[in-house]
Amino acid sequence: MSRLLDRRAVLRLGLAGAAALLREHVTARLAHAQAGRGAPTVDPRERHLARLRQLTFGGQNAEAYWDRSGTRLVFQSTRSPFGCDQIFTMGADGSDVRLVSTGRGRTTCAFFSPDGARILYASTHHTGADCPPPADRSGGYVWPLYDYDLYTCAVDGGDLRRLTSSPGYDAEGTIAPDGRIVFTSMRDGDLDLYVMDADGGSVRRLTERPGYDGGPFFSWDGRDIVWRGWHPTDPGELSEYRALLGRGLVRPTRAELFVMAADGTGARQITSNGAANWAPFLHPDGERIVFSSNLHDPGGFDFALYLIRRDGRGLERLTHAESFASFPMFSADGRRLVFCSSRGAAQPREFNVFVADWVD
């Protein structure tokens, strides 16, 4: 099977043939991995997580997000035969894994449309079939800001439509219940949040402060947007930020959480702890926010899930059984939580998708 899944063969097969072959390959790997591993470890302090299930086994799997019905997930994964992340869907139990991106370039940040008929994601495939080069981290930990554009496709990967074509970074997109898209872009020279119509029209900027604004999500009712941001005020830090931005890089070692109305008004900072607070998502009650942070490991790379109220009170740590947990998302009914984690990893830099029943 591995012989059939080399990159050149996949490109010759086209999307439909590659997807069918990949489903067969992933099903076999999944069965083998499940047979060799027990149930995921649950720390006794993880009182909010019940019936924890592991959905992927091996590789790097991240940013798994629910459709509105709670029956499917869309996620990004680096797995054979691909050299960098591509977009896949799977059932809520981890079955029926399907490739939906083109298999070319690097992809990130996928999200279902409200009716579940289309998928939004960012890709570099317009720049070429190869994976873009990794960032130079000789001067410290940085993230590359690749030349992503936003696309939508049908849930089977067909009917690909390009929504943005501005030079530089357009990514981190998610969708409101009415179909509007919020995303991060460098189109005006800084990393800011923008909103646009489902077809890519009527683009409007939402944030203005110098610094990085990213990872935005609408609340399930579409009234609010929660996001992460870092707005350096120290002249030296601001100068370094802008110098890195000029090289297509950002240093993601600090970020605080913010919330605002969906029209961009009433922005308010939630956290102020100096840590790297990432991947916030609002509970369907509109009051609680789940997020990932290293606030227990200042300056380090140990991330756990936390819960906080939108007024900044009630901070609570949720996960303890791994060195990395992030990208949490509540299902629309608030009964399940999906997240990505190094829990039980067999290899370095292995991240898998987990689902738990949420216990209040």
Walk me through what this model shows.
Helix content is 12%, strand content 36%. The longest helix is centred in the first third of the chain and has 30 residues, at 7-36. The chain is globular and about 45 Å long. A 4-stranded antiparallel beta sheet has the order 1-26-25-24, with no helix packed on it. A 4-stranded antiparallel beta sheet has the order 2-3-4-5. A 4-stranded antiparallel beta sheet has the order 6-7-9-10, with no helix packed on it. The chain has one domain (7-358): TolB, C-terminal domain (Neuraminidase, 6 Propeller), CATH 2.120.10. It is built from 2 helices and 26 strands.
Keyword list:
360 residues, 2 helices, 36% strand, Neuraminidase, mainly beta
Brief overview, please?
With 360 residues, this protein is mostly beta strands.
Largest sheet: 4 strands, antiparallel
In percent, how much strand structure appears in the residues? 35-45%
Uncertain runs: 1-13, 23-28, 30-36
- Mind telling me which CATH architecture this is? 6 Propeller
Tally of helical runs: 2
Number of domains: 1
Strands in their spatial order, largest beta sheet: 1-26-25-24
CATH class: Mainly Beta
Q: Please identify the structural class as seen in this structure.
A: mainly beta
What shape does the CA trace take?
Answer: globular
Helix content: 10-25%
**N-to-C SSE string, H for helix and E for strand:** HEEEEEEEEEEEEEEEEHEEEEEEEEEE
Number of strands: 26
Radius of gyration: 19 Å
